[in-house]
Automatic annotation (TrEMBL):
Species name: Microbulbifer donghaiensis
GO biological process, any: DNA transposition
Record's protein name: Putative transposase
Domain of life (superkingdom): Bacteria
Transmembrane segments: none
UniProt-listed Pfam families: Y1_Tnp (PF01797)
Species lineage: Bacteria, Pseudomonadati, Pseudomonadota, Gammaproteobacteria, Cellvibrionales
One GO molecular-function entry: sequence-specific DNA binding
Transposase IS200-like domain mapped to chain residues: 8-129
Amino acid sequence: MEYRRAYLPGACYFFTVVTDRRQPLLVDYIDRLRHAFRQVRNKHPFEIQAIVVLPDHLHTLWKLPRGDHDYSSRWMKIKRSFSAGLPATGLRESQRAKREKGIWQRRFWEHLIRDEEDWQRHLDYIHYNPVRHGYVRRAREWPYSSFHRLVAQGWYTEDWGSEVSDTVLDMQFE
């Protein structure tokens, strides 16, 4: 199958990345995931404008550098770095043939942010996601989120999320 992706240099993108078979690995290995992001960002810079990490998937907003559109290589390197040293489990034949470890779904969801309103909707979606999935009652209770940084910067109030609009609740990206 051929996927068409939107590649626009210097653009802002929303991503959803999911573990294979929704294995709840990411929170258990959060330091490994953080290291993978740091390692890739050091060599291939990009700005993480927002992120939330849940046990089996993550959502993030990235701003790529001017003149750079290569988010696919960055994701490949982040996934590879995270997976290094983790045991392969229950591999399907197609995964074995491609020398995969069965840690990540092969692809990811990407959305090119169109405007300020689109950016804000995705920002809200990211930070409300742990509440939406029932992990916590308030966004501020989830430790693996950029919500706390954005509260400190004045983007959100500490109690944000108690009355989230239907637009945020109805968004589906996973």
